[in-house]
Specification:
The complex is a heterodimer of chains A (670) and B (199).
Chain A lengths: L2 E3 L11 H6 L4 E2 L3 E2 L8 H4 L4 H29 L10 H36 L7 H20 L27 H29 L12 H33 L13 H34 L6 H14 L15 H29 L8 H22 L3 H7 L3 H31 L5 H27 L21 H32 L37 H6 E6 L2 E6 L3 H10 L4 E3 L6 H17 L2 H19 L27
Antiparallel strand pairs in A: 1-6, 2-3, 4-5
Chain B lengths: L1 H12 L6 H27 L9 H4 L2 H26 L3 H31 L8 H32 L7 H28 L3
Helix pairs in contact in B: 2-6, 2-7, 4-5, 4-7, 5-6, 6-7
Chain lengths: 670, 199
């Protein structure tokens, strides 16, 4: 979808027919005609529209969520009984490694990217991201990287070193299959995808805001996504280095983690966690952003202390760089390092606590509307607080040394990741579904979804704290009958509770999937502004048009849309906010001043071509370097095709040709 | 038509005043700092670990590398001249200086290939020791960056000659310039830390 014509506004503008009739179709590298389809599969595969890319991110992430969930259920089945034999030890190692990798890199991060892609341009009043083709490239690299990573299951076994892949356990000697090679190269591809998308989104936020949208007028979700992109920008190159070192060691015989030659095993740990700890905030901050949108909407109050929430988010982003070694307290860093990282870790609890306070005070005195989205958001506050409290106790190094690598840690981080990040994403689903698809998810099924997941999370991960305190180690394939212990805190009972709980979460997710299908088939179109929402993304039709806004809105305040609907009116009880305009009226006013011609960036073949070359290079590194040469040639072809292609298709690419004398350009080269 | 629209784009959309492309390039280079930061840290950790084998002190030929470093630094000067010509819309000189920059860059890469071969013949291969693995990885990564820069420079010449630049030509040259200067600055750090300061 490239050119939005509005002939009803300026009918005379569709001129230039003589000129376009003579033009021959422009082509990519002189062979193919440029893709311009607005419908059918081509409109998705070659699209550069941030909304379509966002939806594709969402669909693929949801798929990987189910994959990762099945892996989790298998793990819990294995641990349901003593000396169990559901999975062998080798397969169990692969299962927990891939469960974590899938959930972190193929579900939570890309699902946050789905929301960011879809809503960030809408929230800042832009027509697309800064580099639409790079955006498509990010998505395809993520998809191909994820597929590449998971083909390892069928090619000799998946990675089995745990998601942080400590050396020297990750060397060929201890893991002879290709699993870790797939893991390293797959993450490398997914990492490039995230890096590209972080640059893209930062430029979008910094450069493409609507007139009047100052930084401190931006919705909190946009702010948190911005912080996350900066974390990605600086954290990803560090893991990239670590992954290169590991793959050079495994594939080309380099010595980096070869202890016989005097290698330092801590090198990997430092590199991994310098990335890995910011990664924790990369996972959680988008969810914080989402609930900072959901809570004010359904409490019908502005967010309490907007600036505090924003600055605490930024503070988390900064301090998040100084706490990585708290993952390494058990590795013998020495008292000074341990003390410094302990204190830094305690410090980071402060901005996090500020946010919890602000959310709670947003609810205080509000007219609460308990929709499913709201319940998920409140669920985040509750569950994240539990996970955060157990987390800050790990800052106390002596206690942490006891708990390291036990189920206590597993319980803690699942509370923050599932209870914090995933529940937040679900709040986002229920909140923004009508915006994206024009239909409201069913609230009754939604409540079931929420309560099943809420109780499921507590039943699964609550007992893990007990199991850990009783000494059950993380990543151990069996717990033997003779070590179960007696009385209330025996391993037997609590492991079974955890397994039942995990199936409860799965049931909750199943209800969500049923809800999606039910909504798609049965639900009536949603009203324009079902939640009486506050931010710019609601100031357009649902689903939004390809060009997002008929006219780029001029922003005057934080919560712009709310302030267009509500005005302060003096009454005998003092000034009151009174709804003076409906959403439809606000929208009609915007449509009345719609832009005549809006040029959107045109679809392109090159992102998918370029992305396709990367897994081929990666297969080549594992099997035969000749294949890498082929992959590199495809990448090179993609780059050159891309560079030589203008970001906007010529009029002659359209059939019949579309023409226009006045154009509004969206984006230069992308 | 697209070109004209592209020019006025930056003026009315960009909130920072910097064009999208340039802002993106700066962000990318910021990210690259951490990539080289990681590689340099790895080298600094491992430079003394070569067992009984050859170490940095015996291996490096500082005069040769000084010359190739000088060549690379001069290429930054010619890059500035190329950017300057591009801003004056002087295609002939732009191409001339781009080619010169590319040649100087190739000379640097050539010297690196020579150096690597010499080291290999002295028995210091990629897999020999922790020192050698981290040395070849660090300088190799830099060499690959220079090589990609050379490809970009020469491709730019071809694209300008055939008048196929999609977008603002001066800005495209300037972006390659930003990348090129960055790669040079990184080399200054690497040269100092790896070759000049004794282990």
């Amino acid at each position: 979808m490239a050119i939005i014509e509005r002939p009803s506004v300026i009918p005379a503008a569709v001129g230039g027919a003589g000129a376009t009739a003579l033009a021959t179709p422009s082509s990519s590298l002189g062979v193919f005609r440029r893709p311009v389809a607005a419908t059918g599969w081509r409109s998705w595969v070659f699209t550069v529209d941030h909304k379509k890319i966002g939806i594709m991110y969402g669909v693929v992430s949801l798929f990987f969520f189910i994959v990762g969930g099945c892996e989790a259920l298998l793990i819990r089945l294995q641990l349901a009984a003593p000396d169990n034999k559901v999975l062998g030890a080798g397969l169990y190692n692969e299962m927990f490694t891939m469960h974590a990798t899938t959930m972190v890199f193929l579900f939570v991060m890309p699902m946050a990217a789905a929301f960011a892609n879809y809503f960030l341009p809408l929230q800042v009043g832009a027509r697309d991201v800064a580099f639409p083709r790079l955006n498509a490239l990010s998505f395809w690299m993520f998809l191909f990287g994820g597929i590449f990573l998971n083909t390892s299951w069928f090619l000799g076994g998946a990675a089995d070193g745990g998601w942080f892949m400590y050396s020297p356990n990750s060397s060929r000697l201890f893991s002879p299959s290709h699993g870790i090679d797939f893991w390293v190269l797959g993450l490398q591809i997914i990492g490039i995808a995230s890096l590209v998308s972080s640059i893209n989104l930062i430029v979008t936020v910094l450069n493409m805001r609507a007139p009047g949208m100052k930084l401190m007028n931006m919705p909190v979700f946009t702010w948190m996504v911005l912080v996350v992109q900066f974390l990605l920008l600086f954290a990803l190159p560090v893991i990239t280095v670590a992954l290169f070192l590991l793959s050079f060691q495994r594939n080309f015989g380099a010595a980096f983690f070869d202890v016989d030659k005097g290698a330092d095993p801590l090198l990997w740990q430092h590199l991994f966690w310098i990335f890995g700890h910011p990664e924790v905030y990369i996972i959680i901050l988008p969810s914080f952003g989402i609930i900072s949108e959901v809570l004010p909407t359904f409490a019908r109050k502005p967010l309490f202390g907007y600036k505090f929430v924003v600055f605490s988010g930024a503070a988390i982003g900064f301090v998040g760089w100084g706490v990585w070694a708290h993952h390494m307290f058990a590795s013998g860093l020495g008292p000074v390092s341990v003390a410094v990282f302990s204190v830094a870790t305690m410090l980071i609890a402060i901005p996090t606590g500020v946010k919890i306070c602000n959310w709670t005070l947003t609810l205080w005195g509000g007219k609460l509307w308990f929709t499913t989205a709201m319940m998920f958001a409140i669920g985040v506050i509750v569950l994240f607080t539990i996970g955060g409290l157990s987390g800050v106790t790990h800052a106390v190094a002596p206690a942490d040394t006891q708990q390291t690598d036990t189920y206590h840690i597993v319980g803690h981080f699942h509370y923050v990741i599932v209870g914090g990040a995933v529940m937040g994403l679900f709040a986002g689903f229920y909140f923004w579904w009508p915006k994206v698809f024009g239909k409201l998810l069913n609230e009754r099924l939604g409540k079931w979804n929420f309560w099943l997941m809420f109780f499921g999370v507590n039943l699964t991960f609550g007992p893990m704290h007990i199991l850990g305190m009783q000494g059950q180690p993380r990543r151990m394939v069996v717990w033997p009958e003779k070590l179960t212990g007696e009385g209330f805190f025996n391993l037997h009972f609590w492991n079974q509770v955890a397994t039942w709980g995990s199936f409860m979460i799965a049931l909750g997710v199943l209800v969500f999937l049923i809800n999606i299908i039910h909504t798609a088939k049965k639900a009536a179109p949603a009203p324009l502004d079902p939640w009486d929402a506050r931010t710019l993304e609601w100031m357009t039709s649902s689903p939004p048009k390809a060009h997002n806004f008929d006219a780029i809105p001029t922003v005057h305040a934080l919560d712009e849309f709310f302030h267009r609907k509500y005005e302060e009116v003096d009454t005998e009880h003092g000034a009151r906010l009174v709804k003076v305009k409906s959403a439809e009226e606000v929208l009609a006013a915007e449509e009345a001043r719609a832009d005549a011609h809006i040029h959107l960036p045109s679809p392109s073949y090159w992102p998918i071509v370029l992305a396709f070359g990367l897994p081929i290079i990666a297969y080549g590194v594992i099997y035969n370097l000749l294949l890498s040469v082929v992959g590199a040639a495809i990448v090179l072809l993609g780059i050159f095709g891309w560079v030589l292609e203008p970001s906007v298709a010529d009029d002659s690419d359209y059939d019949p040709p579309a023409g226009g004398s006045e154009t509004k350009e969206l984006s230069p080269v992308g | 038509m697209a070109d004209i629209a592209l020019h006025d784009h930056g003026a009315h959309v960009s909130s920072t005043g910097l064009s999208n492309n340039k802002l993106a390039m700066w962000l990318f280079l910021g990210s690259e700092c951490l990539l080289f930061g990681g590689l340099i840290s790895t080298y600094m950790l491992y430079r003394g670990r070569h067992g009984d084998g050859v170490g940095p002190a015996q291996l490096f030929d500082v005069p040769l590398t000084s010359v190739s470093s000088f060549v690379l630094l001069m290429s930054s000067l010619t890059m500035v001249l190329a950017v300057n010509s591009a801003k004056r819309k002087d295609d002939r000189n732009t191409n001339l200086w781009l080619v010169t920059t590319g040649l100087l860059g190739s000379l640097f890469v050539g010297a690196q290939v020579y150096e690597f071969t010499a080291f290999y013949n002295e028995g210091v291969g990629f897999t020999t020791s922790l020192f050698s693995s981290s040395f070849f990885t660090l300088t190799g990564f830099h060499g690959v960056h220079v090589s990609i820069g050379v490809i970009m420079l020469l491709a730019m010449v071809a694209i300008i000659s055939r008048n196929k630049v999609a977008g603002d030509k001066a800005e495209a040259v300037e972006m390659i310039g930003l990348y090129w200067h960055f790669v040079d600055v990184v080399w200054v750090v690497i040269f100092t830390l790896v070759y000049l300061i004794p282990a």
